[in-house]
Fold:
Amino acid sequence: MESTLDSVEAAELIVQRMAQLNGFDEEQINRIGMAVREAVANAVTHGNGYSSGKSVFFEASIDAEAFRVAVADEGKGFDPDLVADPLAAENLLKASGRGLLMMNAFFDEVEVASAGETGTKVFLVKYRSDRKSQQNKFQSSIGGRFSMSLSTGIREVDGVTIVDLSGRITLGEASVQLRDTVRGLLEQGATKMVLNLGGVSYIDSSGLGELVSAYSTASKNKCAIKLLHVQAKVQDLLQITKLYTVFESHVNEAEAVASF
Structure:
């Protein structure tokens, strides 16, 4: 596979289709896709550095026992033991470093093999358990999902700037769009901001990083940022990464506005 974001999207879609056809339920399908997305994204960005002269090697198989995925890059390699713990208090506000955490959360076994100039190989194993066929439900839920970009709307309620977000916040243009939107509002003098995630059904580790970066940048500019209408899948990630301890979240817009 080429070292591009298109390869990241393609790998995620492939494993989700495989999981769907083999009877995994919707939650498992989404988690499998997200973990593989993180592995391939790491290979493309950190391993190969988007180099057109380097490839990402991707293999997925499934049998009666387990779903197995292997991802390899042609980068310089790294020591996974030196990766900072993203759950440590001193690392919660770092914009990156959550990919391995998410892989470990969503797969039963994760092995990282890295040997200098030979690149990094990641092996993921998810054992099969009780599964219910969700084929029709899953097909309807992902129709056109990979073509869905991030859309933003900005409004003001009682002196609070509300940013309505809809789509996917992922590595690439969507993360940049979120960053530019928040920074633009800060430059205009916003001091109270609510990110309405009601229309956001998917966030990867890069998207989480942008949320953290937005929070940190806003704090430095004496602006408070709070979250609104966080969907279950996104809330799950906030729990896994302990970012629920960073962000104040509300389920009602009037309460969010009044909380400042």
In short: Helices lie at 5-21, 26-47, 99-106, 135-141, 173-187, 205-220, 232-240, 253-258. The two ends are 48 Å apart (CA to CA).
